[in-house]
Amino acid sequence: MSNNILKYESDIWKTADLLIGAGIKQSDFPKFMMPFFALVMVESRLIREANRIREEENIEDTEDFIEIFQLEGLGYNDYVIRKEITLKDICKNDKTFDTDFDGYLKAFDAETKYLLGVNKGNDEEKFLDITGVSGLLKKKRILFNTVKAWSEIDLLPFNNSDITTLEEHIKRKWADISAETAGEQYTPDDIISLISELIATKIEDNDEFLTIYDATCGGGNLLFGVEDKIQEISNRPTATYGQEWNDALYALAKIESRFRKDTYIEYGNTITEIGKFFDKSFNIAVANPPYGVDWKGFEKEVKTDETDRFHALPSISDGQFLFTQHILSKLENDNGFGVIVHNGSTLFSGDAGSGESNIRKHFFDNDWVEALIQMPQDEFFNTGIYTYLWVFNKNKPANRKDKVILIDGSNQWELLKKSKGKKRRQMNADNRKAIVDAFVNFEDVQLDGKDFAKVFDKWHFYYNKQSIILTNVDENGKAIQMPTKTNRAGETVEEKAIKLNPTQLEFTSLEGEVKKLSNFKITTFDNTAYNSLEDYFNQEVKELINSIDYKESNLKIHTAKAIYSYDTEKETIVETTVAEPVEVKELGNGKILVKATYKKETKTKDASIRITVELSKDTVKDYEIIPYHPIEADNQKQIADFMAKYVTRPFEYSDNVIGVEINFNKIFYVPEQLTPITDLQAELESLENELANLENELGL
Fold first, then answer.
1. pLDDT tens-digit series, residues 454-485
2. In whole angstroms, what is the distance from residue 383 CA to residue 127 CA?
């Protein structure tokens, strides 16, 4: 890369001084700067390519030269190519500037005018909207000075890769000031280098085109950056494919694509517009998809998608895993390799059975995950959070089948001499080499006495979420026993409850008043206070019955043969017989349920209120997180052994759901080394001695 290219970063930002003076909000700077950056970029490349063709073809006739130039498919501007008039020339005369600038814009070919937004109607896609922006600047009386400032920026000496680097730095600042989504479009050069070096370890040395795909390509920084770096380290021919939904960024990427060989950029939403590259699959995929962005706006399209690319759906608040699933569907099944940038939530968000967990499980079930690499904090331009590289391989070598390497690159960085937004750190060549070497060697590594890379069987990240129904017991470990019955299948099963025939209910109300109920089928009511029996039920009876707490209300259920109550100290239901000799029996832990229901009038029965009482087991639904084993019989034994060791109450198995999560913090956690107690005591004694000496000196 030519180091001189970055000197234009400050020159470009000087053009913003005119915007500030005109009272334009800083957050709107990208809108006013992008079109002119594109204009300067296009002009420089047209001139560069024209000079190349003249040198290679040695054509003297102007019309022949123009015909050959247009056949190159690079775009065209009659002012620049035929008349050799540049923006800088136009700005030499402020009297004729308006006419000349308008003619200059209209002299572009149709596609370039379409991308720049020259004279676009209100109902058309304006992309960079240079006509609209120019009109606004003209009203502010700064159009001429703005174009003149931009015309002084000479990008002619620099190649595609150089200008891509400059774009990265400029668009990073645009992201900062316009408060765009963190990490959405701008991947720093050192991360692009790392991704390229990881890809290079998988590239075979042959003459076949290496196809590279970015489903969220933005302005093309990552896609084109990876291509440039791969071409530096490999002779393999490349073809790049990208798709972008942001109008201005798509236009920038599309314009640049014309100056690159075998590059195809499409406009549209990757998640909903599936017609783009529908018939293609790719060798390589790279992406830095938006994270923390909801997909409510196209929820219907996602849920009715018929492409089978979405195995499961993530939370509506974060659609990054939608892009990942799409990308994997576009990777060649027998030769597909991808590196995708994500934030940490993709590693662990969502419980077992959730969309995120099921998506991770889908990736691991298919054995597509080869590596997960943690990046340093403060690595990206507009976010300080940790980010991670998911490294996917649809053709893992035999010795890596069902295995995954985790690499902790969080400490592989050096401080920048000057921060770039929130980017304060970068990975130098040695930092990247450590990560790439660990990936290539695929074995456990320690650096400076700490774990740096660890290889796991993929099953390590699976777990059972075993749901159980726990039965509460009394102090003696006993629960009330339910009678059994034979179901329709001929199986002996427990009844759900024991129904009592109460003669009286005695309980203490919330106000401390002792109340008694002896009417369990109510058909009459005070019609001076209530409009109907149902009204009486809703306003009086239901509220009263719901207030009864068998543990707190000193409840006693009288039947013809016994009285039932709950001993809160022993946590057991007590049955006391009525007949002599009185017998007191502890039935075990359980619930006493008092219910009230309203029965509507039928042809044969009057409306009534029914009060019933039941005894049942006191159960609670719970779950246990248990390590997973891929062999079903061993997994069931593992669950059973866990339950026998850790669950002491009676229980029944319920659903078991398999989840997948990756906890980097737990895997690479280094406990803080505590100071030995002897050292602390010695330090304390030393401080006490110093204090005593000070007191003596002060005569205290």
1. 999 999 999 999 999 999 999 999 999 999 99
2. 27
